[in-house]
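ARCHIVE CARD
Drawer: 12
Card no.: 0347
Subject: one protein chain, sequence and derived structure
Cross-reference: see card 0346
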Amino acid sequence: MQKVFDNAGKALDGLLFDGMTIMSGGFGLCGIPEHLIEALCDSGVRDLTFISNNAGVDDFGLGLLLQTRQIKKMISSYVGENKTFEKQFLAGELELEFNPQGTLAERCRAGGAGIPAFYTKTGVGTLIAEGKEHKEFDGQTYIMETGLVADLAIVKAFKGDTEGNLVYRKTARNFNPVMATAGRITVAEVESLVEIGEIDPDQVHTPGIFVHRIIEGTHYQKRIEQRTVREPTGK
């Protein structure tokens, strides 16, 4: 099966439909699938549910899809950098399902592993636990969380080969690998696309069996959410 596509638009062709659920990898603005997100904007697909650690910033990342009002629901753990998100949520125009960050990661991992649900202590006694099944193990109370599976997962890796084997760098490994396994269809974009055999098998983070389509991206912005620098000091 041919997995390599010329660009993000072609890689998403035939996969999109209104009301679908999409997982989007990355952590903050690190390791996000920039080109695939832009292609989603251009496609005009609407009423999307996004599973993502965060919602980007106002003019970048998933913030672009919020600006065009293509997202109807976010399943996230941190959304504090996006004023567009805030306005839409407070106005009742955007649904939100909050998750503790570790719980969100485990829900994605569980979905990719075929595990329908699991128990965790995180969130017990808080709003997170309301309406969820509680159970005791060894005298401790746990709540049940369900695994997450998406119609489409879009991920970003540092390097990939033409069979879809992926290598991530540093913080980009937080959510991309688990989300790559939890999409019914997974599309990856990489900074460097190489031939089969050019990646040491011991370095592969996502095996190509999970990846259905792949593109090589260019001109990545790699923005920083909150740039903090030290004031220069005199000698």
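Annotation on reverse: Residues 21 and 49 are 5 Å apart (CA to CA). DSSP finds six helices and eleven strands in the chain.
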